[in-house]
Design brief:
With about 300 residues, the protein is α/β, with parallel strands linked by helices. It has 14 helices and 9 strands. The strands form 2 sheets. It has a 6-stranded parallel sheet with strand order 3-2-1-4-5-6, sandwiched between helices. Helix 9 crosses helix 12 (about 235-255) and helix 9 packs parallel to helix 14. The protein is elongated, with a radius of gyration of 20 Å. Helix content is about 55%, strand content about 15%. The model has no long low-confidence stretch (mean pLDDT about 95). The protein folds into 2 domains: about 5-165, NAD(P)-binding Rossmann-like Domain (Rossmann fold, 3-Layer(aba) Sandwich); about 170-290, N-(1-d-carboxylethyl)-l-norvaline Dehydrogenase, domain 2 (Orthogonal Bundle), CATH 1.10.1040.
Length: about 300
Protein backbone atom coordinates (compact mmCIF):
# COMPACT_ATOMS: atom_id res chain seq x y z
CA UNK A 1 0.00 0.00 0.00
CA UNK A 2 1.41 3.38 -1.03
CA UNK A 3 2.12 5.90 1.66
CA UNK A 4 -0.11 8.97 1.85
CA UNK A 5 1.67 12.22 1.15
CA UNK A 6 1.74 13.94 4.52
CA UNK A 7 0.90 17.59 5.09
CA UNK A 8 2.26 19.32 8.17
CA UNK A 9 1.00 22.66 9.45
CA UNK A 10 2.79 24.33 12.38
CA UNK A 11 6.59 24.12 12.54
CA UNK A 12 7.34 25.48 16.00
CA UNK A 13 9.36 24.02 18.88
CA UNK A 14 7.42 20.75 18.62
CA UNK A 15 6.22 20.73 15.03
CA UNK A 16 9.57 21.34 13.34
CA UNK A 17 11.33 18.30 14.86
CA UNK A 18 8.23 16.14 14.32
CA UNK A 19 8.07 17.00 10.62
CA UNK A 20 11.77 16.18 10.30
CA UNK A 21 11.20 12.80 11.93
CA UNK A 22 8.56 12.05 9.31
CA UNK A 23 11.08 12.91 6.60
CA UNK A 24 13.68 10.70 8.28
CA UNK A 25 11.19 7.82 8.25
CA UNK A 26 10.81 8.16 4.48
CA UNK A 27 7.53 10.05 4.30
CA UNK A 28 6.89 12.64 1.59
CA UNK A 29 6.08 15.84 3.52
CA UNK A 30 4.54 19.11 2.34
CA UNK A 31 4.75 21.80 5.02
CA UNK A 32 3.33 25.20 5.92
CA UNK A 33 3.79 27.47 8.91
CA UNK A 34 2.99 31.07 9.68
CA UNK A 35 6.72 31.80 9.93
CA UNK A 36 8.18 31.53 6.44
CA UNK A 37 11.70 30.91 7.73
CA UNK A 38 10.50 27.67 9.36
CA UNK A 39 9.06 26.52 6.04
CA UNK A 40 12.28 27.38 4.21
CA UNK A 41 14.34 25.50 6.81
CA UNK A 42 12.40 22.27 6.46
CA UNK A 43 12.29 22.61 2.68
CA UNK A 44 16.09 22.60 2.82
CA UNK A 45 15.81 19.25 4.63
CA UNK A 46 13.71 17.73 1.87
CA UNK A 47 10.12 18.79 2.48
CA UNK A 48 7.96 20.53 -0.11
CA UNK A 49 7.18 24.13 0.87
CA UNK A 50 3.57 25.31 0.73
CA UNK A 51 2.26 28.86 0.88
CA UNK A 52 -0.98 28.15 2.76
CA UNK A 53 -2.92 25.48 4.61
CA UNK A 54 -5.17 25.21 1.57
CA UNK A 55 -2.16 24.38 -0.57
CA UNK A 56 -1.08 21.70 1.91
CA UNK A 57 -4.52 20.07 1.83
CA UNK A 58 -4.55 20.15 -1.96
CA UNK A 59 -1.32 18.14 -2.08
CA UNK A 60 -1.67 15.72 0.85
CA UNK A 61 -4.07 12.93 1.75
CA UNK A 62 -3.26 13.23 5.45
CA UNK A 63 -2.58 16.55 7.20
CA UNK A 64 -1.03 16.89 10.66
CA UNK A 65 -1.65 20.05 12.70
CA UNK A 66 0.67 21.14 15.53
CA UNK A 67 -0.65 24.49 16.73
CA UNK A 68 -0.87 26.41 20.02
CA UNK A 69 -4.61 26.41 20.80
CA UNK A 70 -8.19 26.10 19.55
CA UNK A 71 -8.32 29.55 17.84
CA UNK A 72 -5.23 28.76 15.76
CA UNK A 73 -6.67 25.40 14.70
CA UNK A 74 -9.89 27.09 13.64
CA UNK A 75 -7.93 29.81 11.81
CA UNK A 76 -5.95 27.21 9.84
CA UNK A 77 -9.13 25.37 8.87
CA UNK A 78 -11.32 28.28 7.78
CA UNK A 79 -11.16 30.99 5.13
CA UNK A 80 -10.21 31.10 1.46
CA UNK A 81 -6.67 29.90 2.23
CA UNK A 82 -7.76 27.45 4.91
CA UNK A 83 -7.27 23.73 5.00
CA UNK A 84 -10.95 22.95 4.44
CA UNK A 85 -10.91 24.97 1.22
CA UNK A 86 -8.29 22.60 -0.18
CA UNK A 87 -9.34 19.33 1.44
CA UNK A 88 -11.34 16.73 -0.43
CA UNK A 89 -13.50 13.81 0.59
CA UNK A 90 -11.25 11.15 2.10
CA UNK A 91 -8.72 13.59 3.56
CA UNK A 92 -7.66 12.73 7.11
CA UNK A 93 -6.74 15.51 9.53
CA UNK A 94 -4.63 14.55 12.55
CA UNK A 95 -4.65 17.33 15.12
CA UNK A 96 -1.66 16.88 17.42
CA UNK A 97 -2.23 20.26 19.06
CA UNK A 98 -3.58 20.47 22.60
CA UNK A 99 -7.00 22.09 22.42
CA UNK A 100 -10.46 21.87 23.99
CA UNK A 101 -12.22 18.49 23.75
CA UNK A 102 -15.48 20.37 23.12
CA UNK A 103 -14.03 22.33 20.20
CA UNK A 104 -12.44 19.13 18.90
CA UNK A 105 -15.78 17.33 18.75
CA UNK A 106 -17.45 20.32 17.07
CA UNK A 107 -14.78 20.56 14.37
CA UNK A 108 -14.72 16.79 13.81
CA UNK A 109 -18.49 16.78 13.29
CA UNK A 110 -18.21 19.58 10.71
CA UNK A 111 -15.45 17.71 8.91
CA UNK A 112 -17.42 14.45 8.93
CA UNK A 113 -20.21 16.18 7.00
CA UNK A 114 -17.66 16.84 4.23
CA UNK A 115 -16.27 13.30 4.29
CA UNK A 116 -13.09 14.41 6.07
CA UNK A 117 -11.76 12.23 8.88
CA UNK A 118 -10.46 13.62 12.16
CA UNK A 119 -8.12 12.18 14.77
CA UNK A 120 -7.19 14.22 17.83
CA UNK A 121 -3.75 13.06 18.90
CA UNK A 122 -2.12 15.39 21.42
CA UNK A 123 1.29 14.40 22.71
CA UNK A 124 3.38 14.36 25.85
CA UNK A 125 7.16 14.39 26.04
CA UNK A 126 7.95 18.00 25.25
CA UNK A 127 10.66 19.28 22.96
CA UNK A 128 12.99 16.41 23.89
CA UNK A 129 10.40 13.81 22.91
CA UNK A 130 9.68 15.68 19.68
CA UNK A 131 13.35 15.70 18.69
CA UNK A 132 14.04 12.11 19.69
CA UNK A 133 10.75 10.67 18.33
CA UNK A 134 9.85 9.32 21.78
CA UNK A 135 6.57 11.16 22.27
CA UNK A 136 3.61 9.64 24.06
CA UNK A 137 0.66 9.94 21.69
CA UNK A 138 -2.94 9.70 22.91
CA UNK A 139 -5.31 9.42 19.96
CA UNK A 140 -9.06 9.82 19.68
CA UNK A 141 -10.94 8.78 16.55
CA UNK A 142 -12.52 5.89 14.69
CA UNK A 143 -10.71 2.57 14.40
CA UNK A 144 -10.30 3.13 10.66
CA UNK A 145 -8.84 6.63 11.00
CA UNK A 146 -6.52 5.55 13.81
CA UNK A 147 -5.22 2.65 11.71
CA UNK A 148 -4.47 5.09 8.87
CA UNK A 149 -2.69 7.48 11.23
CA UNK A 150 -0.70 4.88 13.16
CA UNK A 151 2.24 4.53 10.71
CA UNK A 152 2.82 8.27 11.06
CA UNK A 153 2.61 8.07 14.83
CA UNK A 154 5.26 5.35 14.77
CA UNK A 155 7.69 7.85 13.22
CA UNK A 156 6.96 10.36 15.97
CA UNK A 157 6.60 8.51 19.25
CA UNK A 158 7.07 5.38 21.29
CA UNK A 159 3.87 5.12 23.34
CA UNK A 160 0.91 5.18 20.96
CA UNK A 161 -2.52 4.54 22.46
CA UNK A 162 -5.95 4.69 20.85
CA UNK A 163 -7.85 6.06 23.84
CA UNK A 164 -11.35 6.22 22.37
CA UNK A 165 -13.58 8.17 19.98
CA UNK A 166 -12.89 11.71 18.76
CA UNK A 167 -12.22 14.07 21.66
CA UNK A 168 -10.86 11.37 23.94
CA UNK A 169 -7.27 12.24 23.09
CA UNK A 170 -7.79 15.80 24.27
CA UNK A 171 -9.42 14.59 27.49
CA UNK A 172 -6.46 12.33 28.26
CA UNK A 173 -4.03 15.15 27.42
CA UNK A 174 -5.84 17.39 29.92
CA UNK A 175 -5.34 14.65 32.52
CA UNK A 176 -1.67 14.44 31.55
CA UNK A 177 -1.17 18.17 31.95
CA UNK A 178 -2.74 18.11 35.39
CA UNK A 179 -0.26 15.46 36.56
CA UNK A 180 2.75 17.21 34.97
CA UNK A 181 1.88 20.61 36.45
CA UNK A 182 1.24 19.24 39.93
CA UNK A 183 4.43 17.19 39.78
CA UNK A 184 6.52 20.22 38.80
CA UNK A 185 4.97 22.13 41.68
CA UNK A 186 5.61 19.28 44.14
CA UNK A 187 9.25 18.92 43.05
CA UNK A 188 9.66 22.68 43.39
CA UNK A 189 8.32 22.61 46.95
CA UNK A 190 10.64 19.75 47.85
CA UNK A 191 13.70 21.48 46.39
CA UNK A 192 13.00 24.79 48.10
CA UNK A 193 12.25 23.15 51.45
CA UNK A 194 15.35 20.97 51.34
CA UNK A 195 17.65 23.70 50.06
CA UNK A 196 16.58 26.31 52.58
CA UNK A 197 17.07 23.69 55.31
CA UNK A 198 20.64 23.20 54.13
CA UNK A 199 20.62 20.19 51.79
CA UNK A 200 22.15 20.33 48.31
CA UNK A 201 19.36 20.35 45.67
CA UNK A 202 21.25 17.94 43.41
CA UNK A 203 21.42 15.49 46.30
CA UNK A 204 17.69 15.83 46.86
CA UNK A 205 16.96 14.96 43.23
CA UNK A 206 19.39 12.04 43.33
CA UNK A 207 17.79 10.51 46.42
CA UNK A 208 14.19 11.14 45.41
CA UNK A 209 14.86 9.64 41.98
CA UNK A 210 15.68 6.29 43.58
CA UNK A 211 12.48 5.85 45.54
CA UNK A 212 8.70 6.14 45.34
CA UNK A 213 8.99 9.87 44.62
CA UNK A 214 10.84 9.21 41.35
CA UNK A 215 9.18 10.89 38.38
CA UNK A 216 9.78 11.87 34.77
CA UNK A 217 9.80 15.59 35.61
CA UNK A 218 12.99 15.22 37.68
CA UNK A 219 14.53 13.01 35.00
CA UNK A 220 13.84 15.39 32.11
CA UNK A 221 13.86 18.77 33.86
CA UNK A 222 16.25 18.14 36.77
CA UNK A 223 19.05 20.11 35.12
CA UNK A 224 16.68 23.02 34.45
CA UNK A 225 15.80 23.22 38.13
CA UNK A 226 19.39 22.98 39.34
CA UNK A 227 20.87 25.41 36.81
CA UNK A 228 17.89 27.76 36.70
CA UNK A 229 17.90 27.29 32.94
CA UNK A 230 14.35 28.04 31.91
CA UNK A 231 14.89 28.16 28.17
CA UNK A 232 11.45 27.09 26.97
CA UNK A 233 10.86 23.52 25.96
CA UNK A 234 7.22 24.01 26.98
CA UNK A 235 6.26 27.53 27.96
CA UNK A 236 4.38 28.55 31.09
CA UNK A 237 1.89 30.34 28.84
CA UNK A 238 1.00 27.08 27.11
CA UNK A 239 0.77 25.02 30.29
CA UNK A 240 -1.49 27.66 31.79
CA UNK A 241 -3.67 27.36 28.69
CA UNK A 242 -3.75 23.58 29.12
CA UNK A 243 -4.82 23.79 32.77
CA UNK A 244 -7.58 26.13 31.64
CA UNK A 245 -8.78 23.37 29.31
CA UNK A 246 -8.63 20.85 32.15
CA UNK A 247 -10.58 23.11 34.51
CA UNK A 248 -13.16 23.92 31.83
CA UNK A 249 -13.63 20.22 31.11
CA UNK A 250 -13.88 19.48 34.84
CA UNK A 251 -16.58 22.12 35.22
CA UNK A 252 -18.58 20.59 32.37
CA UNK A 253 -18.45 17.14 33.97
CA UNK A 254 -18.89 18.22 37.59
CA UNK A 255 -15.40 17.28 38.75
CA UNK A 256 -13.55 19.26 41.44
CA UNK A 257 -9.82 19.79 40.77
CA UNK A 258 -8.73 21.85 43.79
CA UNK A 259 -4.97 21.45 43.43
CA UNK A 260 -5.09 21.99 39.67
CA UNK A 261 -6.88 25.27 40.33
CA UNK A 262 -4.15 26.29 42.80
CA UNK A 263 -1.33 25.57 40.34
CA UNK A 264 -3.30 27.30 37.59
CA UNK A 265 -3.20 30.45 39.74
CA UNK A 266 0.54 30.05 40.33
CA UNK A 267 1.09 29.93 36.59
CA UNK A 268 -1.12 33.00 36.21
CA UNK A 269 1.02 34.81 38.78
CA UNK A 270 4.16 33.92 36.85
CA UNK A 271 2.59 35.20 33.63
CA UNK A 272 1.56 38.42 35.36
CA UNK A 273 5.15 38.82 36.53
CA UNK A 274 6.51 38.55 33.00
CA UNK A 275 7.65 34.92 33.16
CA UNK A 276 5.09 33.36 30.85
CA UNK A 277 7.64 32.79 28.10
CA UNK A 278 9.85 30.64 30.36
CA UNK A 279 9.83 26.87 30.53
CA UNK A 280 7.17 25.43 32.84
CA UNK A 281 9.94 24.26 35.18
CA UNK A 282 10.22 27.97 36.10
CA UNK A 283 7.26 27.29 38.41
CA UNK A 284 10.17 26.69 40.80
CA UNK A 285 10.79 30.45 40.88
CA UNK A 286 7.31 31.09 42.24
CA UNK A 287 7.91 28.72 45.16
CA UNK A 288 11.34 30.33 45.67
CA UNK A 289 9.68 33.75 45.81
CA UNK A 290 7.24 32.55 48.46
CA UNK A 291 10.13 31.22 50.56
CA UNK A 292 12.48 34.10 49.76
CA UNK A 293 15.11 31.52 48.91
CA UNK A 294 16.85 30.48 45.71
CA UNK A 295 17.77 26.79 45.68
CA UNK A 296 21.48 26.20 45.99
CA UNK A 297 21.99 29.40 47.98
CA UNK A 298 23.43 29.09 51.51
CA UNK A 299 20.99 27.70 54.05
CA UNK A 300 18.75 30.39 55.43
CA UNK A 301 19.71 32.87 52.71
CA UNK A 302 16.88 34.99 51.31
CA UNK A 303 16.24 35.61 47.64
Amino acid sequence: MAKDRVGFVGLGVMGGPMARNLLAAGHDVVAFSRTRASVDDIAADGATAAGSAREVAGQAGVVILMLPDSPQVREVLDGDDGLLAGAREGTLVIDMSTISPVVTREIAAECAERGIGWVDAPVSGGDVGAREATLSIMAGGSDEDFARAKPLFEALGKTIVHVGPVGSGQVVKACNQVVVALTIEAVSEALVLGSKAGVDPATIIEVLSGGLAANKVMEVRGRNFLEHDFTPGFRIDLHHKDLGIALQTAREYGVALPNTAAVDQMLQALRSNGRGDRDHSALLTHIEDLARHTIGAPAGATA
